[in-house]
Design brief:
Helix content is 85%, strand content 0%. The chain is an all-alpha fold. The two termini are 30 Å apart. The longest helix is centred in the C-terminal third of the chain and has 34 residues, at 121-154. It has helices at residues 2-24, 30-50, 53-57, 61-89, 91-99, 101-112, 121-154, 159-178. It has 8 helices and no strands.
Length: 179
């Protein structure tokens, strides 16, 4: 169990790099960074597939098409828009948006799934707790950003900054939708 805990912590630290790498490599285009990530992911996937040839042989052309589509959308497109958001609005604000993904995904499934029975009320309670946690944890940051945005909007010299920030918010929203 301890080993599993450390693996979970390591996975979270590695996931955190999605916010740090665009800041470290800010001289590079977010699209270039996304391509680099996609190539690294592809190299690891190719190595895995090389050692699991029986599983690869069982894949159909349709399986490969779906895998390529998910790879392009999930790795390349998602990470590109996420990197754009990090560069434009910062890692903290982008993190607020991506923290909403489990909530948005749950609500999407609830809205689109056909059910024979009613939704368990415990689900609504857990979604309400998640929403409250997101609000309470991020209200101060959002208020700070809103105050800064209002100051920028009042200044005639910072129209480009405000436009760039708005574009970053749109990129962050797009990352949630793509996910």
């Amino acid at each position: 169990m301890v080993f599993g805990f450390f693996l979970g912590a390591a996975a979270c630290m590695i996931w955190g790099l999605v916010y740090v790498i665009p800041l470290i490599l800010s001289d590079f285009s977010p699209l270039f960074i996304a391509f680099g990530r996609y190539l690294v992911f592809g190299a690891f996937a190719a190595a895995y597939l090389a050692f699991n040839r029986q599983k690869v042989a069982a894949l159909t052309r349709s399986d490969w098409n779906i895998a390529i589509q998910f790879g392009l959308i999930g790795n390349l497109l998602f990470y590109w828009v996420l990197s754009e958001a990090v560069v434009r609005i910062g890692a903290a604000m982008t993190g607020i948006f991506t923290a909403c993904i489990p909530l948005v995904a749950s609500l999407w499934v609830l809205g689109t799934e056909k059910r024979d029975r009613p939704i368990d009320p415990k689900l609504w309670v857990s979604l309400a707790v998640i929403t409250a946690g997101l609000v309470f944890l991020n209200v101060e940051r959002v208020q700070f950003v809103m105050a800064q945005t209002m100051e920028m909007a009042a200044s005639t010299t910072s129209a480009d900054i405000l436009f760039d920030y708005t574009l970053g918010v749109l990129y962050a929203l797009a990352s949630v939708v793509i996910w």
